[in-house]
């Protein structure tokens, strides 16, 4: 069976491109059935359209958080989404939505959580570099009400070189993000991800 994936994003959708490529090359048996953004000009929508994917801008202006999330949920259910991926999604979700999608919604964060949680995109990399640490990376976790605090599915470390800039570090971390997202999609599809309290077990 082909896994139906939904994507929420507010930025460029670089990680989504890796999923599209993996689907097209047969590395994962999945289909992206909905790409939704809260930003009308987010490149993730343009990227998705280039591949003929179903895209939608849902305007959050003047809407309560739960009301907005319910609109998103209607679209996700309409498309039969089984796994929801947050790729550079800049909105914090309502408790209602988080509970409804618990264990089926994954978020990628550009650091080794719980270190450097809470920020987004280049702000995280700036904070990491300012801290002078030598190792950073990324974390894929299930979405919960508390930001960047859900059960961790996978992590990958990335070394910070002496000559790294925020942009070069971001590029290296994104490659790591793509690796663990693709791995987790296959795990999810095969039923290998088991939630036990706040811990994730990957079954052989």
Question: What is the string of SSEs from the N terminus onward?
Answer: EHEHEHEHEHEEHEE
Please give the CATH architecture.
3-Layer(aba) Sandwich
What's the CATH topology label?
Rossmann fold
Main beta sheet, described? 7 strands, mixed
- Major beta sheet, strand line-up: 3-2-1-4-5-6-7
Q: SS-based structural class?
A: alpha/beta
Helix count, DSSP H or I runs of 4 or more residues: 6
Overall radius of gyration = 16 Å
Describe this structure in words.
- There is one protein chain.
- It contains six helices and nine strands, in the order βαβαβαβαβαββαββ.
- The chain has a single domain (3-202), classed as 3-Layer(aba) Sandwich (Rossmann fold), CATH 3.40.50.170.
- It has helices at 14-24, 43-50, 65-78, 95-100, 122-131, 166-189; strands at residues 3-8, 30-37, 55-57, 83-86, 105-109, 135-142, 152-159, 193-196, 199-202.
- By secondary structure, the protein is an alpha/beta fold.
- The strands form two sheets. The chain has a seven-stranded mixed beta sheet with strand order 3-2-1-4-5-6-7, sandwiched between helices.
- Strand 1, helix 1 and strand 2 form a beta-alpha-beta unit.
